[in-house]
Amino acid sequence: MNRTLPTLLASSALFLSSLAITNAAEPTFDWVAAGGGVKSDKTRAVTFAPDGGVFLAGETNGDGSFGDLKRDGLGETDFFLARVSKEGKFLWVRSLGGSLIDRGYGVVSDAAGNAYVTGHFQSTDAQVDGQTLPNRGDYDVFVAKYSPDGALLWIRTAGGVGYDYGHGIAIDPQGDIVVSGSVAGEATFGDIVTKSEGKGRAIFCAKYSPAGDLIWVKASTGNFSGSGHGIGVDASGNLYLGGSGSGSGSFGNLPLESKTGAALVLKLSSSGDAIWANLTPGMPSAGFHEITVDAAG
Asked: The pTM is what?
């Protein structure tokens, strides 16, 4: 039986390879798609489209090409989202950016072929689809939805004056979008304000409807400073966040405490209530970057 897998390599240009792997046989390349320019370009996230194509999200610097498609740089480092057909052809590429650093960290696709992306933007003049994004200071979070043909359907921003980012993104069984990440200090999500104490960084999880309406946002409190990275969803809509952190604080009614850097897993209900937390202390850089959930939850 053949299995087709995407393989990504990040260097001065980005590459996407499709491998056909047969049991007890050497893998063979079906196709290779490459994009980027003369500077550093990175694919940071990949997901399959329902037609077998692929969505790529990441960052690119300056002018470049994605297959036969040309892309003009918007500033220093731009967010990009690209769609590649199952045959390895770039169908379209979209950008967000300005004079500073703007990146994509997560992408997921729904059953209709829409793409949802998250990341952060530093540029106070960041442009996307003819609109300038409001920036509250330093890096802010963005979450966006694109149609199967690359039209921007909506974009939402969040954050404060500190270093904030969205990293993990997933879709729950109801079709809502859940995002994980980290915010520093006071951060605004729609009409909701979260706060982290001192110099700590709060782990957050936010849920949006398919139309882009903010349903809820939850964040850690106290002097626990952490980073939220991967997010997974089980069949009941429970959420699992992977990340890292240290210090003393809480997420909802769950205490979070580690004197050293620790890898962290949080389980939340579909409404964002904390169910359990597991911290595994280790070296200062200990953490979970991605997470997935099996059929048994």
From this structure: 0.91
